Amino acid sequence: MPPDPPATPKPAATVVLVRDTLHGPEVLLLRRSRNSGFVPGAYVFPGGRVDPGDEQFAATLPVEESDPPLAYSVAAVREIFEETGVLLARFANGGWAPDASHDRIMEAWREKLMLNEATIGDLLYEEGLTIALDPLACIAHWITPVAEPRRYDTRFFLAPLPKGRTARPDAREMTDALWITPAAALGRFDAGALPMVFPTVRTLQQLTGYTSTAELLSSTMGMQVKPVLPRLVRTARGVGIVIDQETA
């Protein structure tokens, strides 16, 4: 039975970080700590809630309207940086910002953001960087079922890993980092070896069958994304998920 009234979904952003390999595009999955308050022990894409600092910085950008709202994209960039150390931002000469794995200044900024001692706007201004929103492609929009006490209105983005950059997860929230092709991840999930939640599985299914990151991006950039609000139902095997007429 859902809470009465249902919890209001909080804005959130999730990012599928992707890179090219000899056997096709790989995505980054992070395993949440078993002490995490949200899906403990599950493999997820980097992501989290939209912060007030994200909304404040988004309001300064020279874009009047966007879908999704710019605050989601800004949150996506910040969450990637906090959870992997990779910053989607450029210098004036077009070069990518260094990652936190190889730059002590970036690591210090990463720590400040995670402790809420700075905002993404502070980082960009102080280091002379411009946020790079152009690589982000919105590929899905999931809303947590009304029966859940903790709910999110989450936009899923796809973003290529900048060349020469290294993703290193923060050990306080994540216990493992796995680069894997979507097909291989789904195979391990089906075998019971890779715990994942429903939206993660569905997103991986959406990303199978591509031979390169460029092909993947060209097929998803500018795509029409509709919100999905699943329902939880009781089945003979326990709790199931219903999307329209489809049951999973």
Q: Mean pLDDT, as a whole number?
A: 90
Low-confidence stretches: none
**How much helical structure, as a percent, in the residues?**
25-40%
CATH names the topology as: Nucleoside Triphosphate Pyrophosphohydrolase
Q: Could you state the CATH homologous superfamily? A: Nucleoside Triphosphate Pyrophosphohydrolase
CATH class: Alpha Beta
Q: What number of structural domains do the residues give?
A: 1
**Number of extended strands:** 13
Helices and strands in order:
Layout: E1 10-19, E2 26-32, E3 43-44, E4 47-49, H1 52-58, H2 70-84, E5 89-90, H3 104-114, H4 120-127, E6 130-131, E7 137-143, E8 152-160, E9 174-180, H5 182-190, H6 198-206, H7 213-220, E10 227-228, E11 231-235, E12 238-243, E13 246-247
Parallel strand pairs: 1-8, 7-10
Antiparallel strand pairs: 1-2, 1-4, 2-3, 2-9, 5-6, 7-8, 11-12, 12-13
Helix pairs in contact: 1-2
Question: Can you describe what's shown?
Answer:
The protein has 248 residues and is α+β, with helices and mostly antiparallel strands. It has a single domain, classed as Nucleoside Triphosphate Pyrophosphohydrolase (Alpha-Beta Complex). Helices cover 27% and strands 26% of the residues. The strands form three sheets. Strands 1, 2, 3, 4, 7, 8, 9 and 10 form an eight-stranded mixed β-sheet that branches. It has a three-stranded antiparallel β-sheet with strand order 11-12-13, with no helix packed on it. Helix 1 packs across helix 2. The two termini are 19 Å apart. The model has no long low-confidence stretch (mean pLDDT 90).
